[in-house]
Structure formats: structure tokens, C-alpha cells
């Protein structure tokens, strides 16, 4: 199903990153049709100028802080968009801002910082290919909301800073895009405001702490999300109720082993206890690796690589060199050959996002359950696997996924 939706999307939006459909810009914008010959035309730039009319930015009572609720956000956003028509949703669908980040201070050792850079490079690569904006934060916007709680004040501020973005896509620093071609099936989420990876039966029957993963999610830039984040953040360390929430979460989720209140448990708690209020707008994605646990994935990378090579050997179209900008079109050609690749441990489709949960690359204190260097080898392999998909557009590849300095020239039409 996931693959179908994705394939259909590609076919109906073949030039998604580079074109702008004239039908979305009205005549009153003063844009003539000829200017569409160049999507970055002068007219498009002019429209970005300050409008004369005041917007919500001129309201001195408006705050970016998660502690100050925002009201009528949908109207405020809509009005801003009205004054900035060049940012209306284009033929490429909804605008996405990917948000990620890390602590303000250095990692415990240089290897951690080096990995941080490579994890970020991976996100920049993905965003460049698909035309998404990316914001990296290296500050805690609320002094008491650190580590996994830091994302909420950041997303709140990003929503206000980016009224043009329909979605904010939070991606943890330790998550790697391992399929550079795959695109989010946004049409599927049309009626939802929050998308997380997980399994409904683990939430509602097992009440498991790991029934969803809060390290990667899409959240719509709308009033619902503002309200939801307000309630979600009320379990955070900035409140006097923090300890109490830790106890409540533990008594609600039997497999939660640590005492502090955390954002993931908070999300599951709200799904369980305020289901009627929120759950119908929350999409629990379980049909592809919206994010996947690295231990399930890393061991499959060699076989996945091989199966893609096997397909490419059969299909001349897939061996042709293309410009990096044509990557999405290339994906469309490949899609039919991935029809039966499936999802999960036995899949030979590239996993979309590989998440190094528990590896703690920045402080080096990985979960003791992970044997020896498994985290380090896993990250190396996933990063080089992803980078090969990029390097290929530049004529090279890493023949050995555990050695990032080893490089070979890509043969033409091998
Ligand atoms: C990889 O493929 C081989 C050959 O088909 C198979 O024997 C092996 O179990 C696969 N490995 C994994 C981790 O799936």
C-alpha cells in the first residue's frame, strides 16, 4: 500500500521539485504566464517582499515560547499566506520543514561530533534532493527542556517562524535516511495532524513504552498541533508536576523502566487517556520504515544492496547517469521493480529511515545491551550506504561500507 501510494504520487507529480503550477497563483499577483519559464523568476522574488499589511508578526503579545499559548493560528497562518502567495502550496504538494538538532555543547569525544556532522550531512542530502527546507538547532529554546524534551519548544518556534510550512518534520540527530529516493506519502496523511511510527495493538492493548517512537514525526503546522503540544509539554521538566508525571507514566506503561517523565511516554499516555480528544488526528504509521530500529535493519543492508544491483543489471534505464536533480524521476523508473520488496526484516527494499536508538553517539554511553562495537559499525554502514546513493550522482561510490575513505569510480552503464 505504502509503495503504491508513493508510486502514484511520483507519476502524478513528475517534476515535483522544480516546477510551480500557474493555477495556484491568481491573476491579481501580477505574474504573467511567461514567467513560469523560469520558476525562480523575478516576480517570485518580488512577492517575497514585506507586504504593507500587518501580520501576526506585528502583534507584540505573540510569543514563540511553548509556555505562551497561541490562538487562532490557522487564521493567522492563512492571512500571512494570503499576503505571500508565492508560498502557497505548489504542485509539489505540501511544504515541509525538516527540523533536527543537538545540544549546544560539544560531544564527549571528537568521534561523537564527527558522527553528528555526518548524520546532519545525510539529512541535508535528503532535503536537497526533495526540495525541503532544513533547520538545525544547537540551542535549548527553553532552558529546562533538554534532551528529548528540547524538540517541543523548537517545533513550536519553527511553526511560528515558518507559516509557509504545512508540516514540520522532526528527525532525531541519530536517525539516518537510508533510502534517498523514497518520498513521504503525504496524501495518506491528509486528514491527520501528527504522524508517528508505531503499532496500534502495542499502544492500546500492551500499553507499551515502545509502541510508538517519538524520535521522528511529522506534525502539521496548525492550531490543533499548537494545542496538542501545549498539553504534551505540560508533562515536561519545566513544570512543577514533572515528577508526578514520571510516576503516572510508569504506572500506565508497565514496560517503562526509568522514573523520569519522557516525551514518548507522554505521547502514548495521551493516546491512551485522551484518545477521544486527539487520536483521530494521529496517524500511526506501520507500513514502511517511517523510522526503523537499527538492530532490525543493519544486518539486511548487504542483501538490500545486492538486490538493487540485480535490478539495475536487468534494466538499462536504471544504469543511465542522471543529474542529481533528476533523482525523483529516477525513483519513478525504479518503483515498479520494487513492487514485491515488502517491509520489515525480510524486506529487500531500502529502509527509509534507520534510527540508532540507544546508541548515544554524542556521549558514547550506548545501551549496555548492545554488544561491543555494534553501534559504531551499524552507524558506519548505514551512513556509507546512504552516502553511496548520493556519491553515485557524483560518479563515485564506497565499495566497502565499513570504510568511508575507500572510494571507487562508478563505471558507466556497467
Ligand atoms: C541474505 O541473503 C542470503 C541469500 O539469499 C540469505 O541466505 C541470508 O539469510 C540473507 N541475510 C539476511 C540478513 O537476510
Automatic annotation (TrEMBL):
Cross-referenced Gene3D superfamilies: Spore Coat Polysaccharide Biosynthesis Protein SpsA, Chain A (3.90.550.10)
Single Gene Ontology MF annotation: galactosyltransferase activity
Signal peptide: 1-19
Coiled coil: 301-328
Membrane topology per record: Single-pass type II membrane protein
Family listed: Belongs to the glycosyltransferase 34 family.
Protein name (record): Uncharacterized protein
Native organism: Camellia sinensis (Tea plant)
